[in-house]
Amino acid sequence: MTIRQYQTISPTLGNNVYIDEMALIAGDVHMADDVSVWPFVSARGDVNTITIGARSNIQDGTVLHVTRKTSSNPEGYPLVIGKDVTIGHKCMLHGCRLGDRILVGMGAIIMDNVIVENDVFIGAGTLVPPNKRLASGYLYVGNPMQKKRPLTEAEIAFLKQSAINYVELKNDYLNTTSNSER
């Protein structure tokens, strides 16, 4: 089953959400309108909350998870993904906060208590260690990550366009699924 309850908590989905039948969404996961989740994604909101903003897309093989609440960290680290965010193939996001219009390149890892401001590119294979803050308007690359350079106007425009491209693609999938079920 693609969508699972954890204890008494079930995922909540906005309008026109696409979740591939080979993805797993469990527990306290909240998706806004027009989110797409592709094959082999695992989003496990069991010990904290996962929130995914409107028009964001989570691509194949990505793992989304959280850090539990404890006496030394009463809020734990939820995972928050803003609006118009593209998460590339095979990424790992764990207990971090991403703003709006971000592109996370394939295979990137973003760890606990990282804050990524709006309008950021994170390059493929980049490792963002715990407790870092990535400033708006920059490209970050490397292991561990380094601020490489400011984004160009074209790159900033592409951040929104990437999300739009995935909304259109997930609509194609939703239409294909709807038509085949008639």
TrEMBL record:
Domain of life: Bacteria
InterPro entries cross-referenced by the UniProt entry: Hexapep (IPR001451), LbH_gamma_CA-like (IPR047324), Transf_Hexapept/Carb_Anhydrase (IPR050484), Trimer_LpxA-like_sf (IPR011004)
Stored PANTHER family: DYNACTIN SUBUNIT P25, PROTEIN YRDA
Name listed for the protein in its UniProt record: Gamma carbonic anhydrase family protein
Pfam families in the record: Hexapep_2
